[in-house]
């Protein structure tokens, strides 16, 4: 069976609760393409309100991060069961901005993946190389160590619909997207690694999204690649017309 495409909007640290509810409502009302899955990731603050606005619509909700403990004295953190209870079904893990600004590592990404699965959330695990790593031809090594670290100890049966997002760091927020061929090549590598580490079935079923300066104008080129199962969109997801433009490009 063909993998269903997924277009996810990562709103990062943008929009008030009211603005988030408004944007979510616009996405749901104006969405025409029902052949793809659509998901939005508001701030933790807006998660519950957005989920409640989107209840009964096909648009799903993700958190942008989670802590690996369920409850407890962890000031400032939010755990999986709280996120699930707020109405989210997915959670982004290991985004390069978390790695860059908040010291996250493969190990903490792994703890978060396990916590997400235990809470019944689908993890969207982000991996991707920096520019210097690509220039030194280290892309595959970086992807492999990020995947191996975050999925250490996992079995094929417990992956809970895991989604991988390939987000080359040099393409995030820079306007420099990977070419469709570069994206497809990295995705093919990730898929072959999944087959080697788990099995062919996992490799075939796992959706691999591309993220990094996806816009309506470049979406079709990227999304028609055989290994690209969707997009994780940052900046362009903050504008309903751009986000829907990407969705309609499929
Ligand atoms: P941009 O689309 O703004 O480059 O961001 C991509 C991203 O980081 C999505 O998670």
Describe what this molecule looks like in 3D.
With 250 residues, the protein is α/β, with parallel strands linked by helices. It has a single domain, classed as Alpha-Beta Barrel (TIM Barrel). It has 11 helices and 8 strands. Strands 1-2-3-4-5-6-7-8 form an 8-stranded parallel beta barrel, surrounded by 7 helices. Bound molecules: 1,3-dihydroxyacetonephosphate (13P). The site of 1,3-dihydroxyacetonephosphate (13P) has 14 residues, from strand 8.
CATH topology: TIM Barrel
What fraction strand? 15-25%
Q: Helical proportion?
A: 40-55%
Ligands bound here? 1,3-dihydroxyacetonephosphate
Under the CATH scheme, which architecture would be assigned? Alpha-Beta Barrel
Rounded to the nearest angstrom, the radius of gyration is: 17 Å
* Shape field: globular
Count of the domains: 1
Keywords:
250 residues, alpha/beta, TIM Barrel, eight-stranded parallel beta barrel, globular, binds 1,3-dihydroxyacetonephosphate
């Amino acid at each position: 069976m063909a993998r269903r495409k997924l277009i996810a909007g990562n709103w990062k640290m943008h929009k008030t609760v009211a603005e988030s509810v408004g944007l979510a409502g616009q996405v749901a009302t104006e969405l025409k393409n029902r052949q793809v899955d659509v998901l939005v990731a508001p701030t933790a603050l807006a998660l519950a309100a957005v989920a409640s606005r989107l209840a009964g619509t096909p648009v799903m909700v993700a958190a942008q991060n989670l802590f690996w403990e369920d409850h407890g004295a962890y000031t400032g953190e939010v755990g999986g069961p709280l996120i699930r209870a707020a109405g989210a079904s997915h959670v982004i893990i290991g985004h390069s901005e978390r790695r860059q600004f908040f010291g996250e590592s493969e190990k903490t990404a792994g703890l978060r993946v396990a916590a997400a699965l235990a809470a019944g959330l689908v993890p969207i695990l982000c991996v991707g190389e920096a520019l210097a790593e690509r220039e030194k031809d280290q892309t595959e090594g970086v992807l492999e160590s990020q995947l191996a670290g975050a999925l250490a100890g996992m079995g094929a049966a417990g992956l809970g619909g895991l989604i991988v997002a390939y987000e080359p760091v040099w393409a995030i927020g820079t306007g420099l997207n990977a070419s469709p061929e570069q994206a497809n090549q990295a995705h093919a590598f990730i898929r072959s690694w999944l087959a080697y580490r788990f099995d062919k079935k996992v490799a075939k079923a796992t959706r691999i999204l591309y993220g990094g300066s996806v816009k309506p104008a470049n979406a079709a080129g990227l999304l028609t690649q055989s290994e690209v199962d969707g997009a994780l969109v940052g900046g362009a997801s903050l504008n309903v017309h751009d986000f829907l433009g990407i969705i309609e490009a499929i």
